[in-house]
Amino acid sequence: MHRFSHNQEGQTLVEVIIAVSILLAGIVTSLTLGIVTVRAGQVSQNRTIADNLAREGLELVRTMRDTNWLQDNVWDQGLCASDDTTAIPDFLPDVNAWSLDFSVDDFADANAQVLYREDRENSLRPLDYYMQTAGPRPDGSTPSRFRRLLTISSDDGSCVDADVSYTVKSEVQWDEGGTTHSSIVEERLFDWRT
């Protein structure tokens, strides 16, 4: 009777190759999942910032309207500039106030850029914030990835002679992953005191 001897070395090599392949597939899957999770977190963070910047634009226009009422001014004072409907919120750090600058017409304008400022003067409570200005860039601020424009128009599409209401649209754009993203918030503001 002949006994056949089996060569175990070949099977062991095949087993090692299969085990390494399974291990590599697991590692690649884990790394891919980690990268996708980090990227999704960054996209979500940028979307949240853009949404808040767009909302802030509306709040600024609403605050200007309300301030006009409190100071017994015409309700839409400062909300229009002849027939120009596009503006940026202009932060004036010297007086800690906002106004509208109607010299910007599109997102390509440098002043449409939202700035990021790190204020580290108070080490107990550092303050980081986004701002926009038509003037010189304040010390400590850097351009962010976000651009913001406000469009303020009456029913006929112009920015003049709005007796009762304006439509205010705040749009924020940013580039990410080779794509331009946008967050738009729109609201009608009324002169409800008349």
What topology does this entry show?
Elements: H1 8-70, E1 86-92, E2 97-101, E3 113-119, E4 127-131, E5 141-153, E6 165-176, E7 179-190
Oligomer: single chain
Q: What's the β-strand tally?
A: 7
Radius of gyration of CA atoms, rounded to a whole number: 28 Å
Name the average pLDDT. 85
- Structural class by SSE content: alpha+beta
Walk me through what this model shows:
- Helices cover 32% and strands 31% of the residues.
- It is built from 1 helix and 7 strands; from the N terminus they run αβββββββ.
- A hairpin with a 7-residue loop joins β3 (113-119) and β4.
- Strands 1, 2, 3, 4, 5, 6 and 7 form a 7-stranded antiparallel sheet that branches.
- The mean pLDDT is 85.
- It is elongated.
- It has 194 residues and is an alpha+beta fold.
- The chain has one helix spanning 8-70; strands at residues 86-92, 97-101, 113-119, 127-131, 141-153, 165-176, 179-190.
